[in-house]
Amino acid sequence: MKPDIEQYLSAQGTRIYRIPLSLFPSMYGFAHLIVKGEEMSLFDVGSGFGDCNQELESGLSEIEQTYGEDVNWDRMTNIFISHGHIDHYGGLHFVRERTNAPIIIHELERRILTDYEQRLNLIADRLEEYLVVAGLPEADREEVMTLYLLHKQLFSSIEVQGTYEELGMQSGGIIFEHVPGHCPGQVMAWVDDILLSGDHILKETSPHQAPESLSLNMGLEHYLNSLAQVLPRAHQARWTLGGHEGPIEDLTARVFDIAEVHRERLKEILLLLDQPMSLFEISNKLFPKTEEYHRLLALEEAGAHVEYLHVRGYIAFTREANRVRRYSRLGDMDPPFPGFNKFSKTFHSAQTPDLASLVEPKAL
């Protein structure tokens, strides 16, 4: 059930409003309205699908009526996009019709918006090849590709006015942090002592992973490094507000929990591979009973973990005549995974840098 609008106050008096949106059937998320001094900014704008645009509009009106906030499109100073997934930027054309506020996105995601059609074709080509190598039957591949492209055909290229890098990773006292993995240009926003985490950290779900073979700067290694990057400052977040699900009060604990999910998933895959298996077969074992679009998400999640294991020499594959890869375990079924040492509490006990260390110095 879609939640109500909520207000969060930072220690410095910045007001953040969570606007719940029906992104797609059975999927909701949030746009966040940030009111800091004279600046009023949106952090994400929803999918633009179904009633989502109308919910964004009515949400802004409700904030004005319930909280007495002077909300109008003419006051909007920035439109910040957390990352290049359509459930976060799909409403941009609707927003652009109402405000000239600059659209800001990470430079690695910029062409997703400015050259959308070509970018979609590129990713679709890579995805089709990925499904072949994974061993997905032909009829299933056609169904998955149709579902993948279904909502994405509703968007078209749009002009972007700037990137976080061009802003020096800050704007009006908001500090932005690049955390690639879930998406190449995933960005979080530190609003005083409140963290807007996008899809990098969610309260209940371990954010979806896809292999770097589909897009550079994605993949489990990038994600885990970005997750660990948050730990030294996690104690500074009084609230962490993700793009989906509820607020997080103990960010440190949540980071450790997510890391443990991935450690256990890697071990689970190794236990499965006492005989050669395709990625499709691995995915079915890890995520049984998935249907429709969730089949693709399961294949990508499994692929991100298989890629991590293969790069580190824990598994190997053979390639069949039909190009399908079959993976087998090499060596220990319960390896130490030294890359997870960065999630040791001892490792981070002395690391407490100030948020200002995130800000990139501007060129003179």
Characterization of the model:
With 364 residues, this protein is of the alpha/beta class. It has two domains: 6-110 and 157-261, Ribonuclease Z/Hydroxyacylglutathione hydrolase-like (Metallo-beta-lactamase, Chain A, 4-Layer Sandwich); 263-341, Winged helix-like DNA-binding domain superfamily/Winged helix DNA-binding domain (Arc Repressor Mutant, subunit A, Orthogonal Bundle). It has eleven helices and 15 strands. It has helices at residues 52-67, 86-89, 92-96, 110-114, 116-134, 138-150, 220-230, 251-272, 279-286, 293-311, 345-348; strands at residues 6-9, 15-24, 27-36, 39-43, 76-80, 103-105, 162-163, 170-171, 174-178, 187-191, 194-198, 239-242, 277-278, 315-319, 325-329. Strands 1-2-3-4-5-6-7 form a seven-stranded mixed β-sheet, with helices on one face. Strand 11, helix 7 and strand 12 (239-242) form a beta-alpha-beta unit. Helix 5 (116-134) packs antiparallel against helix 6 and helix 9 packs across helix 10. The chain is globular and about 65 Å long. It starts with 5 loop residues before the first strand and ends in a 16-residue tail after the last helix.
